[in-house]
Design brief:
alpha/beta; potassium; transmembrane; chloride; membrane
Length: 1052
């Protein structure tokens, strides 16, 4: 049936519901209002608590904590509270809310019984037994009841694992599986409850128009046959269904208290009806009722087609034809021309209810599935029929109204076992919810399952098969088939089922809007927020309007047999996720998973989940796909809008377990070359306001990564952890904000260190976790490294180069980072030039390929330049390189640049000498900052005024006015040797720069091998100068240093 949310039953959508829009659940423990509102001087009064005085703002005393827990009422307002609110609308002070007093019987057992028993039992159960047979129907009932029993076990474990506010399954799923699953399944549960309301209303109208007052039909069925009669019946259902839906919605709108007051009446109707059926079964064993059914041959005749079950009768020794004769013959005379089948077969009258001791069970044991329009025939009775002659006068027989098959019966029957959540929905009204919910729910399912299974057997043992298959009682004078079995009168069942379906419809229209209101107030689906509003007393007016509109869709479908599988889908999906939630919590062994209900196991939950999924596709595979599609769309919608809810859900636990498992696997060994991708640690610097100084570093990272692999953005805050934690937190927030702006998916890491050098070193050493570590470091080129105040900055940069080399980590150094494109820019043409001087494991080949995957660089073409020495065969080098790129599947233009050995120019000597002199002077003289600046300016002015001339590297000439005399000791020769090396390096840098500038000056990006730093720490400024000369005149340069391993391969 459904999850009745009557007394609940707000779902969870009362004014005080959890949906307060806060990102996290409020805790009743720390910083609770009860504790914070108390007078703090009283909290820690006396000397006994003096030791904890300084923690009084964050940690309440145990006495106040226990008081808070004892009065914990984090429960949404249910329908009873709405009723009280209505009674107090005039401004009278509401009375104090009494403590919950409902026990297991009244709070859980009877509401579940009322919800589970319903329309399918009264209108379709006998037909299901007739079509599917006792054996097939028993399997269906057993499967469905097993599914609900396993779900109840899982639900009991979840419900007893802490306080469950009213709302039942939605609350349990959303808090166990997270807002995405909770919202998706909550909407499906809402739709199932809404379509259940439509099903009950259609059942109510079916009982009214077919069994109580057929004369009330607006579209007359009399005289119509086949599709016309079916269309007239459906139109009557639509008209009356809309009227009844409007009246019910009005009743719910006026006040839920009327529904609550009628709840016991509806429950009494259900119980009385079922007892009358059992009484009727007992009576058939003692005195079977006279309940004739007329057959022609083995075909069941319509009761309205005859007055006497005979072809002719004797009146005053005269043979007179009957109404049945006139139905099959062209006149009332004995010599009339009649239907061939009518002539060849006799009319017989059988007992429709032979009784439980008649042995009819053997005949009804197996199924008898029918195609639409087939005639209901009695098994075991022979008839004379010509297989070649067409069936005539078919409108005189009872016909199958739909094509039946096993899975159809599953879909139609399953709604009769739903409603198991009624107890958990009422948890706010229970005296001891953690005891009552498991006992009451499992007892109710056991009771209803026993009733259903016994009814399958008893119906098959008491009622003739043709009567069972007669869905609308057309062969038994239009009586409700289950009513024919009831004692003392069929009207007990008719009126009992009528009032039961009316009550169930009202309860659906009461519970569904409150469930939607709860989802809306949780704030996880933004476009539903309007439905969280309602009347002043909290009644969900807008949600009721939407519920009635959706319910009208079911009314327009008009067929109970078509609506039942729809709501089966939604309820099965809901139950499936309840089982999944329990299984996950059990397997993950989360510390908070401590249910009082101990009789559960993850295997039972998985079995229940598998049964739910199987039943979904058995009922209707296309409905199952649609239901899953709806749930998936809602899931992705919530995920897209990033519902900021932290409910301690199991999906987060799965993520942690999966992450741990993946990290452990990564520890088994380094990744294969085919799987290598740059996992980047981006080192950024912050200004005094903790804002990032080089935001384009993250733009480049995004273009290089395209959201794939690991990205860590790290920075260092200078100071101590105790004093600078606030600054570090602010820096972390700045990093996160910029990463979100630049759409960089990754993590932030901020360290606090006494100096920036150590902090950067710590980031390189400890960044990442386990096997998920960075293999590449990106750091910006120090812009003003020549300024005396920035000397420490370039020394830190060189240390980063050294550390990455030692750690075998690749290094990327973008120069002129401010000129790099943002993510919104597009290059419509241009080149990415790669200058492949030394082999670096393939980094220079891989990086342009990755960049060109991004829309910024997509239209840029790739060019690869390599340098040939005097002894190299440049033609063969080019062929080999083209072949190599072909095997790498990389598209690029190849060019080999020849560099012949040439004499070192005088300008090179001069530039090297000036570099050395400045380094020596600043090293020997410990000048102050101002003196350093003056010295640099003076040196610059002298350099400009001094003409360049060739100078021997072994006998340096000093600029005028500033002679440098080499010390006359053993270090002199060493320093002269160093100078010679520097001259050669400067020569190489200048020659390479000339070639690169000539070929790649207009390139959008130049990638270049980055030379290694000097092994000793003498002349670090010279290293920076070499790099500066190497990249001079180029706009965007990316210096690349490999990590000492191959990162690209020709193999698949």
């Amino acid at each position: 049936m459904l999850n009745n949310m009557t007394d609940c039953e707000e779902g969870e959508g009362g004014p005080n519901s959890q949906g307060d829009g806060n990102p996290k659940e409020s805790s009743p423990f720390i910083n609770s209002s009860a504790a914070t509102n108390m007078d703090k001087s009283q909290q820690y009064d006396g000397n006994n608590m003096a030791l904890f005085e300084e923690e009084m703002d964050t940690s309440p005393m145990v006495s106040s904590l226990l008081s808070t827990l004892a009065n914990y009422s984090n429960l949404p307002t249910g329908s009873k509270e709405h009723e009280e609110a209505e009674n107090n609308e005039e401004g009278s002070r509401p009375s104090k809310k009494p403590a919950p007093q409902l026990g297991t019987l009244m709070g859980v057992y009877l509401p579940c019984i009322q919800n589970i028993f319903g329309v399918i039992l009264f209108l379709r159960m006998t037909w299901m037994v007739g079509i599917g047979g006792v054996f097939g129907s028993f399997i269906i009932v057993f499967m469905c009841c097993s599914t609900t029993m396993l779900t109840a076990i899982s639900m009991s474990a979840i419900a007893t694992n802490g306080v469950v506010p009213a709302g039942g399954s939605y609350y349990m799923i959303s808090r166990s599986l997270g807002p995405e699953f909770g919202g998706a399944v909550g909407i499906c549960f809402y739709l199932g409850t809404t379509f259940a309301g439509a099903m009950y209303i259609l059942g109510c109208i079916e009982i009214l128009l077919i069994y109580i007052v057929p004369q009330a039909a607006i579209f007359k069925i009399e005289g119509l046959e086949g599709p016309e009669a079916e269309a007239a019946l459906l139109n009557n259902m639509r008209v009356y269904g809309t009227i009844v839906l409007s009246l019910m919605a009005l009743v719910v709108f006026v006040g839920v208290k009327y529904v609550n007051k009628l709840a016991l009446v509806f429950l009494a109707c259900v119980i009385l009806s079922i007892l009358s059926v059992y009484a009727g079964v007992i009576k058939t064993a003692i005195d079977p009722p006279v309940f004739p059914v007329c057959l022609l041959g083995n075909r069941t005749l319509l009761s309205k087609g005859y007055d006497v079950c005979a072809k002719v009768i004797e009146i005053d020794n005269e043979t007179v034809t009957t109404k049945l004769w006139r139905s099959f013959c062209d006149s009332e005379y004995l010599n009339a021309t009649c239907d061939e089948y009518f002539n060849n077969n006799n009319v017989t009258e059988i007992q429709g209810i032979p009784g439980v001791t008649s042995g009819i069970l053997a005949e009804n044991l197996f199924g008898n599935y029918l195609e639409k329009g087939m005639i209901l025939e009695k098994r075991g009775l022979v008839s004379d029929v010509d297989p070649d002659s067409p069936t005539t006068s078919s409108n005189r027989y009872v016909l199958a109204d739909i094509t039946s098959f096993f899975t159809l019966l599953v879909g139609i029957y399953f709604p009769s076992v739903t409603g198991i959540m009624a107890g958990s929905n009422r948890s706010g009204d229970l005296r001891d919810a953690q005891k009552s919910i498991p006992i009451g729910t499992i007892a109710a399912i056991s009771t209803t399952s026993t009733v259903y299974m016994s009814c399958v057997v008893l119906f098959g043992a008491c009622i003739e098969g043709v009567v069972l298959r007669d869905k609308f009682g057309e062969g038994v004078s239009g009586n409700l088939v289950i009513g024919t079995l009831a004692w003392p009168s069929p009207w007990v069942i008719v009126f009992g089922s009528f009032f039961s379906t009316c009550g169930a419809g009202l309860q659906s229209l009461t519970g569904a809007p409150r469930l939607l209101q709860a989802i809306s107030r949780d704030g996880i689906i933004p476009f539903l927020r309007i439905f969280g509003h309602g009347k002043a007393n909290g009644e969900p007016t807008w949600a009721l309007l939407l519920t009635a509109s959706i319910c009208e869709i079911g009314i327009i479908i008009a067929s109970l047999d078509s609506v039942a599988p729809i709501l089966s889908m939604f309820f099965l999906m809901c139950y499936m996720f309840v089982n999944l939630a329990c299984a996950l919590q059990t397997l993950l062994r989360t510390p908070n998973w401590r249910p009082r209900f101990k009789f559960y196991h993850w295997a039972l939950s998985f079995l229940g989940m598998s049964l739910c999924l199987s039943l979904m596709f058995m009922c209707s595979w296309y409905y199952a796909i649609v239901a899953m599609g709806i749930a998936t769309c809602i899931y992705k919608y919530i995920e897209f809008y990033r519902a900021e809810k932290e409910w301690g859900d199991g999906i987060r636990g799965i993520s942690l377990s999966a992450a741990r498992f993946a990290l452990m696997r990564l520890e088994e060994g380094p990744p294969h070359t085919k799987n290598w991708r740059p996992q980047i640690l981006v080192l950024v610097s912050m200004d005094a306001e903790q804002n990032i100084e080089q935001p384009r570093l993250l733009s480049l990272t995004n273009q290089l990564k395209a959201g794939k692999g690991l990205t860590i953005v790290g920075t260092c805050v200078q100071g101590t952890f105790l004093d600078n934690y606030t600054e570090a937190h602010k820096a972390d927030q700045s990093l996160r904000k910029l990463m979100e702006t630049e759409k960089v998916k990754g993590f932030t890491q901020v360290v606090i260190s006494s100096n920036l050098r150590d902090g950067t070193s710590h980031l390189i050493q400890v960044g990442g976790l386990g096997g998920l570590k960075h293999n590449t470091v990106m750091v910006s080129w120090p812009r003003n490294w020549k300024q005396p105040e920035c000397h420490q900055e370039f020394r830190n940069f060189i240390e980063v180069v050294r550390e990455t080399t030692i750690a075998s980590i690749a290094l990327l150094v973008p120069k002129n980072i401010s000129s790099y494109p943002s993510n919104g820019e597009r290059f419509t043409e241009g080149h990415i030039d790669v200058w492949w001087v030394v082999h670096d494991g393939g980094m220079l080949m891989l990086l342009p390929f990755l960049l060109r995957q991004h829309k910024v660089w997509r239209k840029c073409k790739m060019r690869i330049f390599t340098v040939a020495q005097m002894d190299d065969n440049s033609i063969q080098m080019k062929k080999d390189l083209i072949t190599f790129l072909y095997h790498l599947r990389i598209d690029a233009v190849v060019e080999v640049v020849e560099m012949h050995d040439g004499d070192i120019s005088a300008y090179t000597y001069e530039k090297t000498l000036i570099m050395e002199q400045r380094s020596q002077i600043l090293k020997q003289m410990h000048l102050t900052k101002n003196e350093m600046e003056r010295e640099v300016q003076l040196s610059h002015s002298r350099n400009v005024s001094t003409p360049t001339s060739p100078t021997s590297p072994t006998s340096p000439a000093a600029p005028a006015g500033g002679a440098v005399v080499w010390p006359d000791n053993k270090g002199a020769e060493k320093e002269k040797s160093l100078l010679t090396t520097d001259v050669r390096r400067m020569h190489t840098a200048m020659r390479l720069n000339e070639v690169i500038t000539k070929k790649s000056k207009e390139a959008k990006l130049v990638l270049l091998n980055m030379p290694g730093p000097p092994k000793n720490r003498v002349g670090e400024e010279n290293y920076m100068e070499f790099l500066e000369v190497l990249t001079e005149g180029l706009n965007r340069v990316l210096l690349v240093r490999g990590g000492g391993r191959e990162v690209i391969t020709i193999y698949s």
